[in-house]
Amino acid sequence: MTNFTIFLVLIVIVAFLLVVVIMVQNPKGGGLSSSFGGGGTQQLGGVKKTGDFLDKSTWFLATLLIALILLSNITIEGAGGVSDSKALDAEDAPQTQQPVTPPVTDDSTTNND
Predict the structure, then answer these.
(1) Res 9 pLDDT > 70
(2) What is its main location (predicted)?
(3) How far, in Å, CA of 9 to CA of 60, rounded?
(4) pLDDT at 21
(5) Longest dimension (CA), the chain
(6) Are 73 and 3 in contact (CB under 8 A)?
(7) How far apart are CA 56 and CA 40, in angstroms?
(8) In the chain, is it the N or the C terminus that has fewer CB atoms within a 10 Å radius of its CB?
């Protein structure tokens, strides 16, 4: 298993977690904390702070996803080396041999005396 494959698996996992965390949030600000009856008081298990946790985890996962994508670019084969274009170098280009065709003779131009 190459490094790029490991990064690719990690990127897919982090992207899936990011989608799950975003889908749990309520765009109106209620989110998971309001569904457990988080009115004005602190609930059992700290449900009032769930919005803060989801907010921080969203930012953390998004930052981690961007970092993994940038780091995976380093692990791509040939990304770190200098790659010269062989199309621009006429000396290095392979010489193609065109097939030699015999000259075409036209029989109608010969004298038939």
Answers:
(1) yes
(2) membrane
(3) 18
(4) 92
(5) 121
(6) no
(7) 21
(8) C
Radius of gyration of the chain (CA): 33
Structure tokens of 79? 């990304």
Q: How far apart are CA 91 and CA 64, in angstroms?
A: 46
pTM of the model: 0.53
Q: What is the pLDDT of residues 52-93, one digit of tens each?
A: 888 899 999 999 999 999 999 888 876 555 566 666 665 555
Query: Could you tell me the residue ranges of all domains in the chain?
Result: 1-26+48-77
Euclidean distance between CA atoms 50 and 26, whole angstroms = 11
At 104, the amino acid letter reads: V
Q: b vs e for 23-38, b when ≥16 Cβ sit within 10 Å of the residue's Cβ?
A: eebeeeeebebbeeeb
Predicted pLDDT of residue 43: 46
Nearest alpha carbon to residue 64 among 7, 2, 3, 4: 7
CB atoms within 10 A of CB 71: 13
Q: How far is CA 76 from the centre of its chain?
A: 11
